[in-house]
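BUG: 3D viewer hangs when loading the predicted structure for this chain

Environment: internal workstation, default settings.
Expected: structure renders.
Actual: progress bar stalls at 90%.

Input used:
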Amino acid sequence: MSRTINEIKSPVAEHMAVFETKFKDAMKSSVPLLDKITNYIVKRKGKQIRPMFVFLSAQVSGEINDSTHRAAALIELLHTASLVHDDVVDDSNERRGFFSINALWKNKIAVLVGDFLLTKGLSLSLEHHDYVLLGIANDAVREMSEGELLQIEKARRLDISEDIYFEIITKKTATLIAACCAAGTASVTTDSATIALAKQFGTLTGIAFQIKDDLFDFGNDENIGKPTGIDIKEKKMTLPLIYALNHSSWAERRKVINIIKNHNEESEEVKKVIDFVIAKGGIAYANQVMHRYKDQALELLQQFPSNPARDSLGRLLSYAIERKK
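Structure tokens produced before the viewer hung:
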């Protein structure tokens, strides 16, 4: 799978290598504790999917430049800050197989580190007068916060409709990938229509990406094997579950909602919900919707100039919904 990512990254591989160094520099601090923590964050970086979206989006429409590198660093700093804060909110002790910041240094320090990363990203843009990039990032952070709060609000009642579900995932997940594509494009062109097109591609991709995450919770031959039920335990209303509930009798619906509300820590009860969703066609429906968003994104991508970066964006989208974890 990593080889596939390297192939996708190939049109911008040299720029990504330079970015790694610049990103480390962007995180530096004169406070020893902060420097120690930010070094730990850099060491446990993932596949760098989001910076890849920035660089590929830029190269589709122009030539990668210093502004593109700042756009990638800005988005990655904001994303990292949001992950650090999320771990505090979720009381999570792990992130990508590593101890989370709050697990190692406690909540107070983790919140402050998140704030530091956020301001580092904003300062980077202000210092270079990248006001368009700053605007894109500001909108993304606002929408991500709104999405999280909307999800928390609706989780209390478990009455999410598909419309509300799509509003939540568009704000919470798709918004960041949309910001990657918009920021990358804005770093090489001032044409508002092209930037808007890139943002829409990112939004469609992000929605498909999140539906894939939903499917991981139920696990089948098309996904990851064993079901996890983590979303059910956390009372998250995912697309397969929403569909299944909407196609059930009142009695079935009441029984499943009672399990999610009151027995969500019991493995056998969670398995009943998973079996219910599969039996009602929730998995098949979510797969169908995910591929519909993928097809819309690929169709939109055809409006950009044909080049290796555009091909890689399409392959990156396919990778996002075919991944096994």
